[in-house]
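batch job 7 of whatever, protein = CopG family transcriptional regulator
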Amino acid sequence: MTDNVTELRPKGGDSEKITINLGYVDLGHIDLLVQDGFYANRTDFIRTAIRNQIERHAEAARQSVARRSLDLGMRHFTRADLEQVQAAGEMLDIRVLGLASIAPDVTAELARATIRSLSVLGALQASAAVKAALAERLR
């Protein structure tokens, strides 16, 4: 009977859920703009406001990304990537603005042996064991 069920929106993916607190007056203003058709819903308003602020400060952000030598976007590390680093006797300094992900089959020991430092502005996806192993190396 459930063979014909189609998932409308895949779980996980390219966003992270956050929670914010707003004053009643600010929330009322947002609701008014939504009711008047300027935005589809509260989330649409908030996303638009955030994107406008990011665009407003785009040049400063670009300079900061360059100064800090950050990888921009998504950076994924597989077990094979880290094993190659380990075989070369090297260690990684990972700096990402966006999403850094470490494959689920990467062990805590391999992560500890190959990742010297980890700085993520955005989100880090990794197993709980890997996150715990790298906790002291997170900046």
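notes: The chain has two domains: 19-56, 61-137.
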